[in-house]
Amino acid sequence: MQKQASQFSVRSKESLKVNSLAAAVALACCCSPLAMAQSDNEPNAEKKTQDFYEQIIVTGTASGQAVRKVDSSYATTSLSADAIKKLAPKSTADLFKAVPGVWAESSGGVSGANVFVRGFPGGGDAPFLTVQLQGVPVFQPPTLSFLENSTMFRVDETIEFMDALRGGPASVVSNGQPGLTTNFILKEGGEATEGSIKYTTSTYDLQRLDAVLSGSLADGLYYMVGGYVQQSSGIRDAGFNSEKGQQFTVNITKEFDNGKLNLFTRVTDDHGAWYLPTPLVDGVDNEYTQLGTLNRQGTIQYGPDGTTQSYDFGDGRGWKGSISGGSLNLELGNGWTFVDRFAYTSGDADTLGLVPNGDPVLLSSVADNGTSAVGAVTGNTYAGDTMVQQIGRWVVYKELEALTNDMAITKQVDQLKATIGLYSSDYSAHDWWSLGNQSYHVIRPGGENLTGIDCNDNDDSCGWNYDINSEGDGQTTAFYGALEYQFNDKLSADVGIRRESHEIEYTVDEGLDGIITKAVQYDETDTAWTVGVNYQIERNMGVFFRASEGSKMPYFDDFRDNFGAYTGGDNLIKDVTQYELGYKLARTNFSLYATGFYNEVIGDTFVPRPGAPSERFTTEAYGIELDSTYFNDDGFSVSLNATIQDSEVTNSTVFNGSEAPRQPSWQVRVTPNYAFEVGGMEANIYGTLIAVDERLSNFEYEDQTDGLGNIDPSKVTVYLPSYEQIDIGFNLLTEGGLKFELAMQNVTDNDGLTEGDPRSNGANNGRFIMPRTATFSVSYEFY
After folding, report:
1. Residue 211 in contact with residue 249, Cβ under 8 Å?
2. Nearest CA to 538 among 578, 491, 496, 580?
3. Residue 34: its pLDDT value, please?
């Protein structure tokens, strides 16, 4: 593993930027129009043409009404059910990699990803991501500690398509997310009864059964039901079924003469091992995980009296809860329309994991006798040259609840459309944490705890502990309005404004001794706006310009981590200003969507770990996103999804001049596909090449020396190496409705890194991308 360890390097920011941009331009330019695409890869060329011209998006409009993608004045990406299947995502966040402008670190397992967008700052989780189901956020706060929206959502066969909106009017509508809003739309029933049943297995012992059924219950009343049950030992084998779960969804639709009523519920109980950064030493590769049979059960110590309790850390991270809601869409006559969307979310998003603390070391340096120690489970004696590392047993229990409603009424008068809306969300989070609980473990997959080391044996946790019990309640209410005016067949403009009231009640008992150490009563208002101009050069080609200003309001953890700043009078609102310039083209066999962007985020914070001091700063970023498709009548298609961006931190006491951490200056996905017929069956062969630039692992300090010209180890700048990944797939559909699908990810088994160690600046740890895996499924579809 000397290879991985040596890939960390210290170099100048200026040289990295020059080399990164040059490489990005070279890679993008070498791709002809044949290399620019994203398609459903169906062999029917006539349907493809219709999809290019008439592709519909339902996310981002104040009125809630659908528009053609080529007519929209903001950047959005749509992924159909077929496109989602070909991506074969291992988690919800894994799917977001197909969205330009988005960098998703999904290497942590089935939940708990880190998702970044357009150079917006973030030390982890997904502070600028909102996940919607049927147009309603699954949870108002985009991120809390140990929670981001994708944790609460699982992709399955009940999804019809996903929209992904970056920037644009999102700062005004819904929950006012200025970054990335993803909206998953469920399948609906129709007059015909249809469905599918699907069995999937894999190289990591996956056993999964999916099913979906839809049809008619009565005249104008339709249903869709579906879900899955699955289990596996995990993509990184833990030696037991570390990933397991099930989900069930019901979607009921009633059509009226003047509209539609939709009601749904989605019940999920799904969790998997939490994959963390691993030591970059010999014997460790992309299949390594700290969790295993010898350490899945462990004891923690918490509270002022040193209470001890045992837990099963094989429970990992996940979501056990439900999301239920619906929508009412009515045409009221005389140009009036009414839309109301609502949802209720309730459940638990717990986290149990084995978290590395600091560098790997030789056992001889920490053993009491200086030569050896004994395995706490096996009784084996380990020699002094054995590599060991402190592993913390972290336990986080999180109970969540939210009730959300978004109502809008629209009036159309000739070329003018006016919308007013009311958005409201009441939400709560109850947290119980015990973080720390470190002890030395052997560096092996599922390496056991040791005895014969003082801090292991005397329950002093080998370092820090941070325990809390907290209660948080919040209410967000916003009035918004929008005007759209069509000057002529080519030129249109829109303007929107949002006035939001944000209230937080939050108390924290740090130490679990029953004493409230932090208490917050917060009530602030903020205004967001957006202005867009769209010019259609011809019916299927146009340009747009958009300016917007929004904010990320503070939620519970923002106050706990920045309590000193809050009590000092800072309201902790993160202000976001964005400018976008876009080009849109949809030909009979080619589409191109290109968006240039600039944004500034003022007032963000960096906290290396819960309880540590925070640093506030401003980030500026600019770049371009490309999303394009080409196909021909012979069944060949190819796609390009690319992002080039540059970011810089300003207004910081220590981070000035740094790039935004953990985001590549460029990334490219090229996906060729060939659809053909063989023996009366429809077949597809496809693949994806992913190329990712180097990334800053941790913040770059202006002064990296100790004043004597020596590098200060605590201020070393660590860059994660660039990497490439190749995925391939094949599917075959018989005339009788039987379908076979084979997908392989990371064919070359690349050891790319998605992050270093965010909890220990400069530690020799990193989290690998997922290892080579293959999945095979057989399904039966009936109509």
Report:
1. no
2. 491
3. 28
Q: What is the mean pLDDT of residues 733-741?
A: 94
Residue 756's pLDDT is 84
Cα–Cα distance list, 400 to 273, 314, 323, 433, 664 (Å):
21, 22, 11, 15, 33
For the chain, the farthest-separated pair of C-alpha atoms sits apart, in whole angstroms, at: 87
Helices and strands, number each (H, E), in the chain: 8, 45
Per-residue pLDDT at 53: 54
Q: Are 152 and 420 in contact (CB under 8 A)?
A: no
Q: Distance between alpha carbon 183 and the CA centroid of its chain, in Å?
A: 13
In this structure, whether the domain defined by 2-782 belongs to CATH 3.40.50.1370 is answered with: no
Is 413 or 45 the better-scoring residue by pLDDT?
413
pLDDT digits (tens, 9 = 90+) for 155-181: 999 999 999 999 889 999 999 999 999
User: How far is Cα 117 from Cα 129, in angstroms, rounded to an integer?
Assistant: 8
As given in the structure block, the two tokens for residue 650 are: 């300003």
What is the reported pLDDT for 660? 85
Amino acid (1-letter code) at residue 28? A
Q: Which amino acid is at 763?
A: A
Does residue 709 carry a pLDDT above 50?
no
As given in the structure block, the two tokens for residue 411 are 């009036």
Q: Report residue 536's pLDDT band, with 50, 70 and 90 as the boundaries.
A: very high
Extract the tokens encoding 744: 């392989």
pLDDT in tens, 103-127: 999 888 988 889 999 999 877 789 9
What does the domain layout of the chain look like in residue ranges? 2-782
Task: Give Cβ neighbours of residue 400 (< 8 Å, ≥ 6 apart).
Answer: 139, 147, 152, 321, 345, 346, 347, 348, 349, 427, 428, 429
The answer to whether the beta carbons of residues 132 and 342 sit under 8 Å apart is no
For the beta sheet containing 450-451, the strands, ordered from the edge strand earlier in sequence to the opposite edge, are 381-383, 372-375, 450-451
Q: Phi and psi dihedrals of 317, rounded to 5?
A: -120, 150
Element (H, E) at 92: helix 92-95
Q: How far is CA 185 from CA 48, 152, 326, 755, in A?
A: 21, 15, 11, 32
